[in-house]
């Protein structure tokens, strides 16, 4: 299953181990299942990062409800 992040980022959820906010920087880290591949999505500030993270969680929740 694919998840679109913004206008240009698309990730395949089948290979994702976790998605988390980086507490030290305004970024969201996407960690792949092999644990060696990490994608970091930068944001101008923590407020923008938090809004994007909340949107990701809401989309994942909607997808889960849809498939149940």
- Overall spatial form: globular
* Main sheet attributes: strand count, strand direction, barrel closure: 3 strands, antiparallel
Q: What is the share of helical residues?
A: 25-40%
Strand order of the largest sheet: 3-4-5
**Which spans of ≥5 residues are poorly predicted at pLDDT below 50?**
none
Percent of residues in beta strands? 35-45%
User: What's the number of extended β-strand segments?
Assistant: 5
- Mean pLDDT equals 84
Structure annotation, total helices? 1
Can you write the helix and strand succession as a string?
EEEEEH
Write down the oligomeric state: single chain
Q: Indicate the radius of gyration in whole angstroms.
A: 12 Å
Number of domains: 1
How many angstroms does the end-to-end distance come to? 15 Å
Judged by helices, strands and strand pairing, the structural class is: alpha+beta
Q: Can you put this structure into words, describing what you see?
A:
By secondary structure, the chain is α+β, with helices and mostly antiparallel strands. The chain has one domain. 32% of the residues lie in helices and 38% in strands. The chain contains 1 helix and 5 strands, in the order βββββα. The chain has one helix spanning 46-67, and strands at 2-5, 9-12, 16-22, 27-32, 38-42. The protein has a 3-stranded antiparallel beta sheet with strand order 3-4-5, covered by helices on one side. A hairpin with a 4-residue loop joins β3 and β4. The longest helix has 22 residues, at 46-67. The protein is globular, with a radius of gyration of 12 Å. The model has no long low-confidence stretch (mean pLDDT 84).
């Amino acid at each position: 299953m694919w998840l679109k992040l913004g206008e240009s980022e698309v990730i395949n959820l089948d290979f994702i181990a976790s998605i988390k906010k980086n507490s030290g920087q305004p970024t969201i880290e996407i960690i792949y299942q092999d644990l060696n591949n990490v994608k970091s999505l930068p944001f101008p500030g923590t407020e923008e990062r938090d809004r994007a993270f909340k949107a990701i969680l809401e989309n994942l929740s909607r997808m889960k409800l849809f498939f149940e």
